[in-house]
Amino acid sequence: SFPDDKFRSQIHFTPKEAWMNDPNGMVYYDGEYHLFYQYYPDSTVWGPMHWGHAVSPDMVHWKHLPIALYPDELGYIFSGSAVVDWNNTSGFQTGEHPPMIAIFTHHEPVGAEEEGNNTYQYQSIAYSNDKGRTWTKYEGNPVVPNPGIKDFRDPKVIWLEDFQQWLMVFAALDRVKFYTSPNLIDWKFQSDFGMNDGSHGGVWECPDLFQLQVEGSEEKKWVLLLSINPGGPNGGSATQYFVGDFDGKTFTNSQDPNASQWLDHGPDNYAGVTWSDIPEEDGRRLFLGWMGNWNYAQVVPTEKWRSAMTIPRSLHLTKNQTSGVYTVASRPVNELASLHTKSVDFEKESVNAGTRFSLMNTDDLGLTVPFKSEFTVNTSGRQSNFRLVLDNPKTQEEFVFRFQDGTLYGNRAKSGLTDFADNFAHQEATAPFQQLLKEKELKVEFFVDESSIEIFLNDGSVVMTEVFFPTEGFTRAYLISDDNPLEINSARTTQLKSIW
Ligand code: FRU
Q: Per the UniProt entry, what is one GO biological process (predicted)?
């Protein structure tokens, strides 16, 4: 079990203590999901980066392991990825089993920048022959030296089966760069993407590239995830994506280059990438993000540790048959069902304006945080707002479902502790859901933990992730309609047990 610290997430991964940011090196190997992460063990704010490490049989329950990579004479260990080198292309295998290779950015510490030198970030590798428990850095590092670009980081490596070679994609200021390699050591530049595509309100970071099949069709497309900070739709950090084609060397955007599509419309899902080497028979594209935002993550009011990861999600590609627009949907993984304890089902009901429809209530229903709820409401003819409210006698977190303009609006101004950063309370979140109003029902699923909520509309087509710090734990969750009655077709709340 885990110390019951104030605000400690019970269904999300957190480090035992100290500072954490991006998930790194997510790879599946021999029954274990590995999660490495940006970690500074000596403080609760960002500092010289290490790779922390944890493993899980199901992406839900985690075992903390010793730090995997420490800073060295080439610098701090920034974000990156890991792969299993099944064919020992690298030659690093020592025993019977294929080695695991980590590909990361070395960042030369302070000083480099002042000297007007832009070459202080470069890509390096390390290998492990004992299932990620111990690592050896390659002596020829870096494997991708820096040609003079200030922001040059966050390599994600994938195996291109069709071309029998490795592909590295990483962020370089306002674009991503693609390199290929036969052996993970010798890398050749292939192309750039993105200078004229998507959002450029901040620096590009943490890309990922993978193929997805369009749901209900044989069509396959490539998805490029790309985190940007600042410049997110609601301020600060956020993750956009592109859908296109990839020929082994070049990515071509299939969608409007001026449009920005966001994986999550909340303020707190950043630097997320997907797991490598998920067995083919599983077939899912599995994702985890950092539940934080650079606008305030270093000053949130947790004492021993800072930041949690999102719940694991699988990514799915849908295509609108009329507009031809592709959307990436995020769905909570089924493995989370192992946390379910008791459920309460609610009857179909038409709830008058101003009357609360209780989804969670500690006093009457005996339910507490953490929990998840799902409900469906009629959309037809609906013109006015309804709200989803989490509260306790002192504080309140509110989400307004605005039907007039099809916008989900999150407001944490009164959610508890908010004054630790100017831009926390007023970082209002909006997510457009007009598209979903074409369906007869709006389906909402949300997960509430001690200091976060993750909301999924219509099977993850629209997502909003937000952190908050209530002075006391929330004891109620309810729906309330502002003017006309709210037609609730179904609702269920499930108590969740702690993952620790
Ligand atoms: C994203 C990021 C990465 C970098 C890491 C440093 O949050 O800025 O670009 O590698 O964090 O900790």
A: sucrose catabolic process
Q: Are strands 441-449 and 429-432 parallel, antiparallel or unpaired?
A: unpaired
Choosing from 36, 46, 120, 206 the residue with most ligand 1 atoms within 8 A of its CB, the one to mutate for a pocket test is 206
Atom of ligand 1 nearest to the CA of 105: 10
Residue 391 to residues 141, 241, 407, 470: CA-CA distances in angstroms?
52, 34, 22, 9
Task: Provide the b/e sequence for 239-257 (b: ≥16 CB within 10 Å).
Answer: bbbbbbebeeeebebebee
Q: Is the ipTM of this complex over 0.95?
A: yes
CA of 206 to the centre of ligand 1 (A): 7
pLDDT tens-digit series, residues 245-279: 999 999 999 999 999 999 999 999 999 999 999 99
Tokens matching residue 98? 């294929």
Q: The pTM is what?
A: 0.97
Amino acid at site 453: I
162 a catalytic residue: no
pLDDT digits (tens, 9 = 90+) for 85-106: 999 999 999 999 999 999 999 9
Ligand 1 centre distance from Cα of residue 176 (Å): 15
- Ligand 1 environment, Cβ below 6 A: 21-22, 38, 49, 78-79, 105, 153-154, 205-206, 271
pLDDT for the residue numbered 380: 84
